[in-house]
Amino acid sequence: MGSLQRGPPYSGIQDLKVTIQESNLVFPAKETEKRSKFLSNIDQVLNFNVPTIHFFPANGEFPPKIVAEKLKTALSKVLVPYDFLAGRLKLNHQSGRMEIDCNSAGAVFMVASCEFSLDEIGDLVYPNPAFGQLIVQKLDNVGPYDQPLCILQFTSFKCGGFAMGLSNNHATFDGISFKIFLQNLASQAFDDKPLAIPPHNDRTLLSARTPPRVTFPHPELLKLKIPIGEELSPPTFDCPEEELDFKIFRLSSDEVNYLKNKAKAADPAEATYYKITGFNVVTAHIWRCKALSCDSKAGPERPSTVLYAVDIRPRLNPPLPASYTGNAVLTAYATAQCKELEEGPFSKLVKMVFEGASRMTDEYARSAIDWGEVYKGFPHGEFLVSSWWRLGFADMEYPWGKPRYSCPVVHHRKDIILLFPDIDAANTDAVNVLVALPVKEMEKFETLFHKFLLEAK
Fold this sequence. Notes:
Elements: E1 3-5, E2 18-26, E3 35-38, H1 41-44, E4 49-56, H2 64-78, E5 88-92, E6 97-102, E7 107-114, E8 150-156, E9 162-169, H3 175-188, E10 221-222, E11 245-251, H4 253-266, H5 268-271, H6 278-293, E12 303-311, E13 329-337, H7 338-343, H8 346-358, H9 362-375, E14 378-379, E15 383-387, E16 405-408, E17 416-421, E18 431-437, H10 439-456
Parallel strand pairs: 7-8, 12-15, 15-17
Antiparallel strand pairs: 1-11, 2-7, 3-6, 4-9, 4-16, 5-6, 8-9, 10-14, 11-18, 12-13, 17-18
Helix pairs in contact: 2-3, 4-6, 4-8, 6-8, 6-10
């Protein structure tokens, strides 16, 4: 019944004793064109860093020193097709838009060591705040528009294992294009392999229309009056970390299937109309628990809106290239009253999550992009489900093997719920749900999480 890790397993090691040994700028292996790179309206609102860590066990044929050298060389090679990663953000004061100055200023490569072994640092799935020591997200004494867009920190453990910490500005990649970047980085760590998937770097494919035409109301977006580029990070979904408790709820493959079967059983004929996927049922389950755990004087009539990302590459007409580099995801939403979430059939919630994604047609996506041109807005809702579940970062094949586990460095934010894959790569249907809430809300969430799961069975 939805297992729960109650206590932080990293309590014995909160300082990984990481020492930075060297830090260097890495430049493209070949000369690249100097230019300004257009950023779409989706890219514009994502000016913040996304740190990910990829843990590797020891490999006797590839000691850490050799791996560090190969990674540094691989980074230099991929900075040719990904030349913008060696550039810097800049604000075009005439247009009020952010751009990337492709000036070959360089990415950063750091080499570090940790005094512990990989096994000693604890559960890799659990969001240990100390993992933040395995990656540098920004350089000190450097202004916001001089910060590198990519920092790679290689950290060796005393066992011979190592971690690759990558921090990139979200304006450079979404999850799908970052996965392709990792595939290409891995391919270039070999001595004689071509790029795995050449990136498609033309972001003007997601330009707003002229003139912009907002043809839908877009309740999932918030109107802002500030010029694009002047806010360094979104003001939405924020809460002081010290006010929050956080826990991981694990749903096994069997429990995800139980939720699917519960949705199908309500109306088998109608279930053929909409997709009952693992993501849809898990999101519906989380939505119900999160909405009903919130302290609100509005009562059962209070509307609740869940947000989640949808890849628009295949939904546009014509479709975007599958290797489109940049942010090609938009926010889908589902809204219901708390009374409906508590008393209504689970299958209806799953259907609403499905319909939220189905709403993302070519015209709806273009309208949302045009909204950004007119209103410069951020996603707006009660909370966001951010899924790393199926991205497959741990499937990358490097010369020294696949990662033991890959995950983002977690920042505890009240209104973002993260989905992580299980550390067992073969168990692809299991999922870990990271929730950060005030203590009283967490108690309610936990009770509801298990209650509704039992009912689903």
